[in-house]
Amino acid sequence: MWTLPILLLVVTILLSIPLSRYFAIVMEGSLKVPGFLRWFERRLDSGPQDWKQYTVSLLIFNAMLFIFGFIVLCLQPIAPLNPLGRGILAPSTIFNTVISFMTNTNLQHYSGDQHLSNFSQIFFILPNMFLSASVGFCALTAIIRLFRGERLIGNYFVDMWRVAVYIYLPAALIIGVIFMHEGMPMTYDTQQTVTTLEPGSMGTDDHGQAKPQNIIVGPVAAVIPIKMLGTNGGGFYGMNSAHPLENPTAVSNFVTTFAMMIFPFTLVLMYGRMLQRVRHSVVIYTVMLTMMVGLIAWAVYWDTLSPNPAFTGTAQARDYQIGDASSPGGKHAIAVPAVGSLPVDQHLGNLEGKELRFGTSAGAVFAAITTDVTCGAVNAEHDSLNPIASISPFIGMWLNCVFGGKGVGMINLLLFLIVGVFLAGQMVGRSPEYLGRKVGAREMKLAMIALLVHPIMILGPAGLYAATDWGVKAESNPGAHGFSQIVYQYSSASANNGSAFDGLGVTYGFNNNPSPSPEAVPLDIGTGLVMLFSRYLPIIAPIAMAFYLGRKKMAPVSLGTMRDDTATFGFLLLGTIVIIGALLFLPVAALGPLAEHLGPIPFGG
Amino acid sequence: MTAVELPLRTNVAKTHQLFSTSLALGSLKQSFVMLRPDIQWQNPVMFVVEVGAVLTLAFIVRAALGGAGASFSLGYFVALDVWLWLTVLFANFATAFAEERGRAQAAFLRRTRVSTPACRLRADGTKEEVSSVQLRPGDRVVVAAGEVIPGDGEVIDGVASVDESAITGESAPVIREAGGDRSGVTGGTMVMSDQIVIRVVAGYGESFLDRMIALVEGAVRQRTPNEIALTLVLTAFSLIFLIVVIPLWPMAFNAEQYMTSYLGLSAPLTSLGTDVPTLVALLVCLIPTTIGALLAAIGIAGMDRALRANIIAKSGQAVETAGDVDTVLLDKTGTITLGARLASEFLPLQGVHVRDLMTAAALASVADRTPEGQSIVAIALRSGVPDAVKTAPEHAKFIEFSAQTRMSGIDFADGRRIRKGAPDAVAAYLHALGTPTPTDVDNLIAKAAAEGATPLVVADGTRALGVVVLKDTLKPNIETRIAQMRRMGLRTVMITGDNRLTAATIARRAGVDDFLPEATPEAKLAFLRQEQTDGKLVAMMGDGTNDAPALAQADVGLAMNAGTQAAKEAGNMVDLDSDPTKLIEVVAIGKELLMTRGALTTFSIANDVAKYFAIIPALFAGTLPWLKAIDVMHLHSPTSAILSAVIFNAIIIPLLIPVALKGVRYRPMGADALLRRNLLVWGLGGVIVPFVGIKLIDMIMVTLHLVA
Predict the structure, then answer these.
(1) Chain A residues inside the 8 Å CB shell of B608
(2) For the CA atoms of A381, A387, A391, A396, what is the dihedral angle to 10 degrees?
(3) Does pTM top 0.80 for this prediction?
(4) Fewer CB within 10 Å: C terminus or N terminus of chain B?
(5) Do B608 and A325 touch (CB under 8 A)?
(6) Distance (Å) from the C-alpha of residue A469 to the closest C-alpha of chain B?
(7) Rounded to whole angstroms, how far apart are CA atoms A561 and A581?
(8) What pLDDT does B296 receive?
(9) What ipTM is given for this predicted complex?
(10) Where are the domains of chain A?
């Protein structure tokens, strides 16, 4: 039960320490690499850049990625490696998917095994996963260098090369070999036809013969390591990490979960090493870890250790009165009768939507972690989590800094940190300062802009879609649960997470699909735009903030300076994140998961 | 180190009541005036509240005229709107009250600035009687004993004792004299003795103090960078909560729709979640109204507190910067040590009785009126030398100390001569008499110098008797004050013209962190710049014209009012008491200002958590009644819950006005301990207090049958 999460955390923490040293060496450019790699590096080096040039390079690179992605997906019907003749996706889905993989979100409004050819998997999915994951990494590196007071902060393209080639590539190779050993397919073939063990399970043909099963395969082991390492989360198969070929064994599940955690963990320590403030980064690390432990424990407790409330019924009858103009007396009574529990053995907790091959707590643990680190891969149905347990993945995405995505999670935390330092830091009787530099109006303006984007992009569209057919018609369940589905979709898009609650009809499919989900197009476009805005503004504004902060004079530490490497500071940071997070998202939490949890059964379920 | 804790405030000369009826009435009137949108706009957070209040008012009018939308009792909306207006008024009152208090304080100073007759010197030296109003910079005026000095100026001729109690509250008169660093006089003060000629440096109403009083009055009050940044953050928070509240309408609408269909009702359900005035109330509760209301008051009160300590800050920023100071430059003389060196030891030569040395030294000093000489006599008497030395023997001739001879002494009628003076001067004197100085004397001199003291050699006739050691005397309690500065995180640096050895000794005794010996004004400035290059903020105090460049360069330059005009112009604060240890107070006031702002901001944001627990269940009581489970306060009804939250949000403002004005007390305890303490009090307290407060208000309203 608790063995899996504890083992995962311990292994990740232990490995993140030496890895952070390696990362720092790579990003400082002091890694000794073979001559031919150095040669490539030199070709890419367009010279040292200041923060504006670096940011513009980042944006241009992403724009190129967008164009490239659009072209590859449009070429799918005529490109090679497409023996199954997959057609072109709906334009809105292409728009959504290209943004999704460019922004490291990997929200999938399509099903990889159903809608993509191996050409698209290899030339669109795979490079995007490497490159989009490197972008946040580079942004964090830029911020570190700016905080150090450097005016020229290195070259964006060289940094991209270093991250992708010296960090992701070797790590993905190692993980990929483990996955292949565990049974993950790695082939150019597209499908295998097999005879099912149970004859006729796929139906019978005209001659009464049992049909064989067609199993989609492909270069899965190439895609999946970077899907996890880069906290991308875009699965080869629609069922993602719950699919037996994408996550064959309990061992692969462990490695999969570990792979998505390791880099976000490591980056926090890299931040400290590169700034030579290791103790400070350890405090941040501890704060993040505390939140993650809390969220994992919450999910496991309420899902793995609690029964599914739909089967347990309600022990006591309850009565509620609500105002209703049409009822006599203006009041309408809602009686919630006592419902006996169903004869279901629930000692293993809520088993709905779980992949039990990995163990009973694997689904809940994965759900919490994948949302904390903005991976977005799933190995269980989040839609089927107990309502109260589903708050854990929600919070992970809302805070978006419980380690968070690589680089961006740390950047998001810096925003909370700056706000916390600014609000509470004055309580030591000095102007607020971070890293010895005074935080002024301009830095705060940029931090607040970046901080504003996330709630706007979640609450705005969620409100709009909840009140219109765009959302309501797409829900698989009416009521509070359907509301959760909408909020989840936008939380996932805005956090650049990419996991789905599921249940929301978001798939249009191929362009010639005669009966697509009715609201797929508005959802494609809505989430696409949200992913776009929530990705770049919260990267650009903090880089600018770091520039303005970094060029200020650094004051020496004295007894009167607020220390940023103490437990007190940790509590300050934790308090800021929890309070601001709660203030932003408590209402939607109440309307979605809480209302569903507290309401009668069946209600919205 | 002694454990004595000195109060940070040594002299609050003028104790004012925090609250007085006339102040309150004036502020009350002003709070209504400030409702004018163009004035209210300057406080964006409260402007949002005002807009909300107007919106609610419009809604009530529409409902009262029989329009749609009044699904709840009109009384609820009226009560809501009244409290929204009260919130704005409370905020305006806080600002107005702080301003009024500052104005009262300034008026107190201004009382000294009335028109007085003045005796102006014409170019040819003749006198003319004019009013002080007519004085122009450059005019020379004569002020005799008993007359009021007509304007700010510098003494260019004469010495006088001046009663400055009108501006400092200190009754003992001070000496002001031409030349030197004690030449500045302030208009409105009174000459007690003698007559001085003053060159006026500022016209009527434009004097330094006049300009500063104007600043204090708030007429030209500028927001400090920290205040601007905080206003920006508060505005951003208001925006964030607008983003939270606006989508609640469609979300609540969604809940109404599906619940209507879930329950199979014929008419659509309505909840407070789609009621605009209620959403306005939620918004007002969430946006940081508490700190938004008190922000201006905190800033004004900071300057006001400085003024109460008799410090006039040229800007609020100067006070704020004081809180950030890292290094404090302290002049040795007058700040760390008493002005003069005093006798501490008598070291006789081999074969000389200490009593004889003392007697001789005392006799040589009887006519010496300098503190050094007097201290020799005093110690000698205390050690049992007969009183007879006090009265000068007949026919004896006193030799005064002069810069040429660097000796003083006495010539008796019988030809006995006693001399005391600088070692080399006495050696030359003895050498002239044909006696070599004994080597023992050199040893004693070296010993005294090694301790940083000044040796004086005493000779009786041709015989050297021994050495009198003069030492710098530390001011009482200065070690404690310096230790206190260290606990405040300040680095103390002593500035002195002494040589390194002497400086090191005093520095060690006083406990300062560092010292700058043999300091010239240039060296002082260079040192200051070096500290600033290292990223430190430096505070210093000065009075002389040669301090002016350093005062201007320092981040906090505190000029003494008694100092020269140049020094006062260069610094960014003026200490009316001319007390060199005031820097501690200045730093503490700056820190309190920042702390108060941080504490109330944290409190304001932390308050919101409880309000959510009151309001969210209330908003959806009409659609999702089971959300009542998260109402941990068990409030009476949805409308009472919302009203309680709004009322709490409003009355916390006047309740915190005293905190804003008095400031959160600064304790020199190190930043981490301070942060921990304040986080507990204002952060955790901010989370807990409203739970209690809202529940109380709800209970009171239920008891009084004010809510349905």
Answers:
(1) 579, 583
(2) 0
(3) yes
(4) N
(5) no
(6) 10
(7) 27
(8) 87
(9) 0.91
(10) 3-195+213-309+352-598
